[in-house]
Amino acid sequence: MYNYTISLIAGLIAMVAVTSSYMFKKRSFYLLFQSITIVFLILSYLFIEQYFSMIGLFIALIRAFTFFMFEKKDKRAPVYLSIIFSVLTLISYFIVNLVILKDARPLDIINLVTLIMYAFFHRIRNYDLMRYLMIMPLGLSILYNVLIFATPFVIISYSFEFVANLVAIVINKKG
């Protein structure tokens, strides 16, 4: 099923969607475009056979949709949901990497930590605080994808998101 070209195209679409997510003032649109980004990142990881990353992002997609629904009701997602999504991420890691693939790597810890950070940081309703906190998992996501040799557009997508996040911080600080 390995197809570098399809992975590259999916990564490009993810890059466009994630960059667009930071252009919206409303958190609900941000979460919607983050969800679109996740769908294409899942496809990108599928076609380079990075299954844990793919499954971890599938859980993140459900999390993003759940948080989006809370945001549409002008409410913050309860912390127990972040805990549940973090536990699901850990369980999926153990099932996929230790039981099925028998391919646990020390690098996976970076991905695990990043996915758990996203689960907690995306529930924060203070948009400015969330942007500051997102610097950590975005930086780790870039590092992880460089180390696993993800397609260039996946790395660029996370890099664009990192830069877009920094630009949003600077713009909001001035305005």
Describe the structure.
This protein has 175 residues and is an all-alpha fold. The chain contains 7 helices and no strands. It has helices at 4-21, 27-47, 51-72, 79-100, 108-121, 127-147, 152-174. The longest helix has 23 residues, at 152-174. The N and C termini lie far apart (48 Å).
Layout of secondary structure:
Layout lengths: L3 H18 L5 H21 L3 H22 L6 H22 L7 H14 L5 H21 L4 H23 L1
Helix/strand class: mainly alpha
Q: In DSSP terms, counting alpha (H) and pi (I) runs of 4 or more, how many helices?
A: 7
Shape: globular
Give the % helix.
Answer: over 70%
C-alpha-based Rg, rounded? 15 Å
Biggest sheet architecture: none
Q: Mean pLDDT across all residues, rounded?
A: 89
Contiguous low-pLDDT stretches (5 residues minimum) are: none
What is the H/E string? HHHHHHH
Strand composition percent: under 5%
Distance between the termini: 48 Å
Tell me the total number of β-strands. Answer: 0
